[in-house]
Amino acid sequence: MYRRPAVAAALLAAALTLTACGAGGEKAAAGAPAQAKPPAASAAPDPADAPPTAPSAAVPPEAKPTGPVLPDAKLVPRTGSFTEKEKTYLSGRVPEKMDPAAVLQTGQESCQRVERTAKRDKDAATAAVIAGEIPGAKDAITLLCPEQKPILAAAEKGFGDGPRTSPAPGAYRSLTVSTTCSWEARAKDGSVLASGPETRPAQPDKTKATVPPGTTEFTSTGCYAWIPA
Fold first, then answer.
1. Which pLDDT tens digits describe the chain residue by residue (229 residues)?
2. Among 47, 49, 181, 185, which is disulfide-ready with 128 (CB 3.0 to 4.6 Å)?
3. What DSSP line would sit under 84-153, residue for residue?
4. H or E segment and range at residue 141
5. What φ, ψ does residue 169 adopt, rounded to 5°?
6. Degrees (nearest 5) of the Cα angle 105, 58, 108?
7. Cβ 89 vs Cβ 72: under 8 Å
8. What is d(CA 192, CA 217) in angstroms, rounded to the nearest whole number?
């Protein structure tokens, strides 16, 4: 007889415990130790596969940081060592409180993106460099992947959409196929000297443009990028 109240109390306590567990399960799970996650893949996305990545505010894509930087003597990775060309790339480029390996990775990823795109289409790689879709491509190619210098050399002769003042007269071709590409060349007085295309090119043809002598402004839209034909 004396055990019944005790048993009832025990059953009530157990029921309350189960109810609390059901209502607060999410809180309990939230308080549990976090499970380790695998590291993210380090391979750089291809401009043809993913939207371009915005350049890091801490490390300008082509210019070196304006604030304090790590001296060359402290450009040491946490494990292993940097090669001479990697040290040259990092010199004067690593903000004082930043990991040199992270800055190097940015340059290496730029090289990977240029290389991968160039394997598919050299024009597309050149256009991506001209348009600034590959952050820091110029310095990365020059110092880390010089085998891609032909892409850089082609890009340095080209220009992107928008107004271009005093372009060199001659023939140009767009670097991508576009059904919306249009262009015009204007003289100093604003008169149109040439425009196009007269007919839309069929794939895989690309738009061509001729800049007449006396052109003071060449403007294009939807053409992406141009190089001399």
1. 434 444 334 433 443 343 344 444 443 344 444 444 433 333 333 444 443 333 333 334 456 788 899 999 999 998 899 999 999 999 999 999 999 999 999 999 999 999 999 999 999 999 999 999 998 999 999 999 999 999 999 999 999 999 999 999 999 999 988 889 999 999 999 999 999 998 877 766 899 999 999 999 999 999 999 999 9
2. 47
3. HHHHHHHTTTSBTTS-HHHHHHHHHHHHHHHHHHHHH-HHHHHHHHHHT-STTHHHHHHHT-GGGHHHHH
4. helix 137-143
5. -60, 150
6. 15
7. no
8. 10
CA dihedral 84, 86, 92, 98 (to 10 degrees): -130
Tokens of 29: 């799970």
